[in-house]
Amino acid sequence: MRVFYDLYEEAVLWGKDLYQHLQSVYRDRAQYCLIFVSSHYARKLWAKHELRQAQARAFREHHEYILPVRLDDTEIPGLNATVGYVDLRSHSSEELRQLVLQKVFGQDVAHEDLPELTWRGELVDFRGEKAASFWPAKLEQAQQQQTYVANVPRIRYGDESFNWHADERPCHDCFAVKGEYHVPGCDVEECPVCHGQALSCQCLSE
Ligand SMILES: [Zn+2]
Ligand SMILES: [Zn+2]
Questions:
Q1: What are the residue ranges spanned by the domains of the chain?
Q2: Which of 2, 32, 55, 67 is the most exposed place for a label (fewest CB within 10 A)?
Q3: Which of 39-43, 136-140, 182-186 comes out lowest in average pLDDT?
C-alpha cells in the first residue's frame, strides 16, 4: 500500500506543476482518498483543489472513494455532511490505521498479515541471505502450525495394504463388499495418511 502525503513527497513534488500532479493523484491514481477535516484544512488553498479532484472521482465511482476523518466540527463546503466519517476525537490513530487497512484489504485482514500487505520492499539480513523484512516473523509463525486439514480419499474395502480376502468375503466387521467404503469406525478400514488402522491412529477427523 502506498500513501500519498505531501510532506512525504517533498522531493517528488519539487518543481512539478502541482495542479496537474495533484489532479492525477486524487482524480486518477488513488484507490481511496482520506480527508482530514479541520479548520486548518478548510483554509488551505491546495486542500480545496484536492477535494475538488477527489469529488470528481467520487462522482464517477460506484463505491465510496472519499473517506473523511474529522479532527473538529468544521464544515467543509462541498463535502457532503451525510457521508460516514471517522472521528479522531474518539478514535486513536492506531484504530484509524486498522480501519484504513480493513478498507483497503477487506474486513477480515489478519493482524499478523499486515506487515506483508504493507511491505514497501525493505530487506533484512536473515540466516546469511537477504529476506523481505516480514519474513522472519512469518517463518516463526509457521512453526506454530503443526498439522494440515486435508481432504484425503478414503480407502475402499479390497484396496488395503493388508489382504483381507475381499474377493472371497465381505468385511468381517462391517459387511462391506469389495469396492465399497467401510462403515466409519470399522476396524478393517485403513488410514489413507499413515496406512495404519483408521480407527486407532490420530490422523483423521470427520
Ligand atoms: Zn469394514
Ligand atoms: Zn493414520
A1: 10-108, 110-146, 147-206
A2: 2
A3: 39-43
pLDDT in tens, 120-153: 899 999 999 999 999 999 999 999 999 899 999 9
Non-local (6+) Cβ contacts of 33 within 8 A are 26, 50, 54, 57, 58, 65, 66, 67
Cα 188 to averaged position of ligand 1 atoms, centre (Å): 5
| CA 146 to ligand 2 centroid distance, Å | 15
**Nearest listed ligand to the Cα of residue 182:** 1
Interval between CA 141 and ligand 2 midpoint (Å): 26
